[in-house]
Amino acid sequence: MSILDRSTFFIKEHVGMMKLVDRYDIHDPDTNEKIGFVEEQPGQLVTYLRLLVNKQLMPTTIVVSDLTDNSVLFIIHRGVSLFRPKVTVKSPQGEMIGYFRAKLFSLGGGFLLFDANDQQVGDVKGDWKGWNFKLLSTSGEELGTVTKKWAGMAKEIFTSADNYIVALSPTIQSNRSLATLLLAAGLAIDTVFKESKN
Q1: Sign of torsion, CA 118 123 129 132?
Q2: Where are the domains of the chain?
Q3: How far is it, in rounded angstroms, from Cα 108 to Cα 130?
Q4: Alpha helices of 72-144 — where are they, by DSSP H?
Q5: Rg (CA), the chain
Q6: Does pTM top 0.70 for this prediction?
Q7: What is the pLDDT of residue 157?
Q8: Dihedrals phi, psi of 179, to nearest 5 degrees
Q9: Which has the higher per-residue pLDDT, 80 or 31?
Q10: pLDDT tens digits along 108-139
Q11: What stretches of the chain show up as alpha helix (H) in DSSP?
């Protein structure tokens, strides 16, 4: 079964105190079996510039792969960002699946989801604590959630590692593009929008 046929994912960030590049494992939350991995690939120059510049302002590429055959599932890319970053999601062949745009004003955090035809298809809304998010359709229907899973006091205090659950509504599984975009949105909360310079 492909990762994209699933509806729940446990995302586990690799622990590190002075990381310049982020890496995550994707697990089946029921069995804890590792089923995929996420690797940030910002390029060598950008990687070293992160020692001087906040990485949220710099371009990055995040590659999401299936562990079964190491095949790339989709790619998330953010260009240079000063205000409202546009984050694209593309297939391994470079075809646009959709993109995200940060909201102008949001107390709890969040961003808007658009398909490849520039049509808004969803909204990511965060709560005041900043680590429980809902993936909503434009009509307000809940399509999924992203919730923080506590990693333990030592990890939380001494590292920036995050563990969280992405849960998608089973009703969207027949729409592969939307399911991919929502999983990418769940990953982008931490990899693109929330991560700060370590």
Answers
A1: negative
A2: 3-97+142-194
A3: 5
A4: none
A5: 16
A6: yes
A7: 44
A8: -60, -40
A9: 31
A10: 567 899 999 999 999 998 875 657 889 999 99
A11: 44-49, 153-158, 176-188
